[in-house]
Amino acid sequence: MDYKDFGLVNTKNMFQDAITNHYAVPAFNFYNMETLTAIISAARDTHSPVILAVSESALNYMGGDTLMGMIWGLKLRPSDMVALHLDHGHSFESCVNAIKLGFSSVMIDGSALAFDENISLTQTVVQYAHKYDVSTEAELGSLAGIEDENTKSEKSSYTNPDDVVNFVNATNADSLAIAIGTSHGAYKRKSDTEELRFDILKRIADQLPDFPLVLHGASTIPQDFVNQINKFGGQIQNARGIPANQLRRTVEMNICKINTDSDLRLAFTAGVRQELFSAPEKFNPRDYLSVARQNIYKTCITEIKEITQSANRLK
C-alpha cells in the first residue's frame, strides 16, 4: 500500500519546518488502539505534527493488517502532518515490509555494525525507500538500555562528530539519530547531576547545519507515575529520565525529532494499576484502559507543549 492512501506524509517537510522554526517533532511509540488514539487526540488538540513510531516487536504484536486498519480508521489528511515510522528496524527486510504495509518513514539501525557495514546497510535501505518517497532515518553511535526485545544494548558509544559528514554523504539518509548520553528504558542516568553531551551535539550540528538530527531514549520518566506504580504493587526503583530543560536545550541545537516511549508506558501502567487497585470489583477492560488512555493523552500534551514545543505548528 502507498502511505499517501492513508493520508500520511513522510518526514521531509515537517523536519524542514521544525529546523527553520526551532522546534522538534514528537515521535511517540504506540502498541495498541488506546495508545494510538491517545497520541492522535493529543496531536490534534494541540495542532502539532506527530510521528507515530512502531518498533519491530510492536508491529509483530499488533499485526500489520490490524495496525494499518487502525491507521485507516484515523481518517488522516496530509494537512494533519502525521508520519508512520518504523522505529529501530534492524534489517533491510524489516524496512521493506514496513514500506509495503504503508509506512511513510523507516529507521534502519545499523549502529551495532562496523562503520563501513552500517554505511552499506543504510545505503541499501535508503535506495529502496526513496523509490517510494519514504523517508529514512539512520543511526550513528549507540544507546544502552532496554526498551523491548528488539531495542536493547548493554553498551553505549557516543557518536563521533568526525564521522557524521562522511556517513550522511555516503548514505543519503534523510535524518540521523545520534548518541549524546540518552538511553533506552527507564534507567537513563545514574545520578541527578548527569548531563547530556552538549559538546558532542554542538560539533555535530556545526558540521551538519540544517540537517535533521534525532534524539532517541529521551523520556523524562515522570516520578509521579513511577511512585503511583510502586504504590499500587509495582517495583520500579531508581528510575531516572532526561530533564525537560536538557531536552529543550537539544531542540535549540538542531535536534528536530525527539522519541518518547518509556514515559507513555509508565503513564499507561500507572493508570491500570491504580484503577484495578481502587476498584477491585471491576472487570470491564474499558474501565481501566480508559484511565490509561487519558494518562497517555495528558503526557503527550505536556511533552508537546513543554519539550518539543510543536504545538500550533500546523499551517
Q: How would you sum up the major sheet?
A: 8 strands, parallel, barrel
Q: Count the beta strands.
A: 10
Low-confidence stretches: none
Coarse shape: globular
Radius of gyration: 18 Å
Find the CATH topology.
TIM Barrel
CATH superfamily: Aldolase class I
Brief account:
This protein is α/β, with parallel strands linked by helices and 315 residues long.
Could you walk me through the main structural features you see in this protein, from its secondary elements to its overall organization?
By secondary structure, the chain is of the alpha/beta class. It has one domain (3-308): Aldolase class I (TIM Barrel, Alpha-Beta Barrel), CATH 3.20.20. Helices cover 46% and strands 16% of the residues. Strands 1-2-3-4-5-8-9-10 form an eight-stranded parallel β-barrel, surrounded by nine helices. The protein has a two-stranded antiparallel ribbon with strand order 6-7.
Layout of secondary structure:
Elements: H1 12-21, E1 25-29, H2 33-46, E2 50-55, H3 56-62, H4 64-73, E3 82-89, H5 92-101, E4 105-108, H6 115-131, E5 135-140, E6 145-148, E7 151-153, H7 164-171, E8 175-178, H8 198-207, E9 213-215, H9 223-231, H10 244-251, E10 255-260, H11 262-278, H12 285-308
Parallel strand pairs: 1-2, 1-10, 2-3, 3-4, 4-5, 5-8, 8-9, 9-10
Antiparallel strand pairs: 6-7
Helix pairs in contact: 2-12, 5-6, 9-11, 11-12
Keywords:
TIM Barrel; alpha/beta; 315 residues
